[in-house]
Amino acid sequence: MCLGIPGRIEEILNLAPLERTARVSFGGITKDINIAYVPEAVVGDYVIVHVGFAISRVDEREAQRIFDYLAQLGELEELE
Q: What long-range pairs does 24-31 form, CB within 8 A, spacing at least 24?
């Protein structure tokens, strides 16, 4: 199953338009993610990430709802 996982942008690492990357936290696990598809995203924003790319922004409350659903499904273990 393909999932988009919410994460919080902790730091912008590269500002080149096509290579724009950020360090994104997924409930304590951090990964470097390409954020070129969401040029308006800034530190502190939550983004939906799929296969290493942020594909949209989402508000904090919606991100938490998604984390709650994933925890209920037992899918959060796959992030680790």
A: 24/49, 24/54, 26/79, 27/67, 27/76, 27/79, 29/79, 29/80, 31/7
